[in-house]
């Protein structure tokens, strides 16, 4: 029987990841009653960071072997430039691994340079792993099809050496493109949506949709102030924020949130939680902070949005807690559609705010009379190659969907980004929704 010491490093990393994951499951069961909410979720976030790092360790070992170890027998292995290269690769991997811990220790009014560098390296790490795997698979397929799997000629060695070089070049190019794309202000996307049973006096009502701002290690007050200025320039009748506003506790990041106090939509500004609000374990304090800025959380509840032209005309705006609250056993929270729609008659138009598209799907299965659901969460995949996973995991990915005869779902690609300050294959968006009366 092979002992743990005899296992290759990649296998040891996999075992460590399994141990951390198992400890997370045990923590949910056995620590739930022994630790207060904030400490319990802090421990969970630490475990998640450790789990991500142990998983990444397998990829990091592959990166090191592909970009450093492979060239140790070359003529340049003893050169000063190669020494600098080894240091650069080590620092790159160290920064990528440290990114998850910045959520716990490096959050302030404006992002720290270290956090920006760490998350940039994480994004580049994901791209590099993808290209190393893809090019390696192509190389193996070529060898198999060419019938040269057992041969190791000079040509094969040359192609093998080119694989990491090409992967690094592609990673550098896409990282620069992704950083430039994410550094641009969000695009303003205008969409007209017919809303069944919307009163004629509310035709052309303008709703601005914000989602996934992720105030935290890489998004701070400056970017939020820019978003608020852009929203005010659109002069919306109503503004809604559909979750993942933050990744930090309210007290820590309060100064960064102040620009939200300048939102002044005539029919109000409303907010529902996303999964990341529950990761902060500070939802109650966030609700109080948002209320101080005249932003009303919809905690499984609804409000009447009354027409500026007639007090007899209105539609029901409802909001549900994010479904992650149930997974995390967050006391007093969790998606409760019945409670959220209490008093919302099918005789009036119903607009629902639900952070995750899967919640939108569940809501329509229970209440197909909902006319419009506004969601976020997917970020449009945010960056290549994560786009494919986000597409496959969500029933609605990004943009406008028609469900049945009288229902629409709109999924925002996000107004900023989570952590990694990059976007590839997606664009940050402020959505201007024009509601049309049938």
UniProtKB/TrEMBL annotation:
It comes from the Eukaryota. Residues 205-380 form the Calcineurin-like phosphoesterase domain. The chain crosses the membrane at residues 12-30, 42-64, 84-106, 112-135, 165-183. Keywords: Membrane, Transmembrane, Transmembrane helix. One of its GO terms (molecular function) is hydrolase activity. It holds the Pfam family Metallophos. This is TMPPE metallophosphoesterase. It comes from Xiphorhynchus elegans. The gene is Tmppe.
């Amino acid at each position: 029987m092979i002992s743990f010491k005899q296992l290759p490093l990649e296998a040891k990393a996999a075992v460590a990841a399994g141990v951390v994951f198992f400890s997370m499951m045990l923590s949910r069961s056995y620590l739930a009653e022994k630790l207060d909410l904030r400490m319990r979720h802090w421990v969970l976030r630490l475990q998640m960071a450790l789990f991500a790092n142990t998983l990444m360790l397998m990829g990091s070992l592959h990166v090191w072997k592909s970009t450093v170890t492979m060239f140790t027998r070359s003529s340049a292995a003893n050169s000063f430039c190669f020494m600098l290269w080894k240091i650069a690769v080590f620092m790159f991997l160290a920064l990528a691994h440290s990114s998850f811990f910045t959520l716990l220790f490096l959050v302030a009014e404006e992002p720290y340079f270290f956090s920006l560098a760490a998350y940039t390296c994480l994004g580049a790490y994901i791209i590099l792993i993808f290209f190393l795997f893809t090019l390696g698979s192509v190389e193996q397929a070529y060898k198999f099809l060419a019938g040269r799997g057992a041969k190791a000629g000079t040509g094969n060695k040359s192609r093998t050496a080119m694989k990491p070089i090409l992967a690094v070049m592609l990673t550098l190019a896409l990282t620069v493109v992704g950083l430039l794309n994410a550094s641009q202000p969000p695009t303003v996307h205008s969409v007209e949506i017919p809303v069944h049973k919307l009163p004629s006096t509310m035709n052309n009502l303008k709703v601005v949709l914000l989602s996934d701002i992720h105030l935290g290690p890489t998004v701070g007050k400056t970017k939020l102030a820019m978003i608020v200025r852009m929203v005010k320039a659109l002069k919306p009748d109503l503004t809604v924020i559909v979750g993942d506003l933050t990744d930090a506790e309210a007290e820590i990041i309060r100064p960064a949130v102040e620009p939200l106090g300048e939102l002044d939509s005539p029919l109000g500004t409303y907010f529902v939680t996303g999964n990341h609000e529950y990761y902060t374990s500070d939802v109650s304090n966030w609700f109080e902070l948002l209320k101080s800025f005249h932003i009303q959380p919809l905690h499984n509840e609804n409000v009447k949005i009354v027409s500026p032209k007639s007090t007899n005309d209105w539609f029901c705006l409802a909001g549900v807690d994010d479904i992650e609250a149930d997974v995390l056993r967050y006391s007093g929270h969790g998606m409760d559609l019945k409670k959220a729609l209490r008093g919302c008659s099918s005789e009036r138009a119903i607009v629902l705010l639900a952070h995750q598209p899967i919640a939108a799907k569940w809501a329509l299965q229970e209440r197909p009379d909902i006319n419009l659901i506004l969601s976020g969460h997917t970020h449009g995949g945010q960056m290549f190659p994560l786009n494919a996973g986000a597409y496959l995991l969500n029933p609605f990915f990004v943009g406008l969907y028609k469900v049945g005869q009288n229902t629409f779902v709109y999924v925002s690609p996000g107004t900023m980004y989570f952590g990694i300050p990059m976007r590839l294959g997606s664009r940050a968006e402020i959505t201007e929704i024009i509601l049309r009366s049938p």
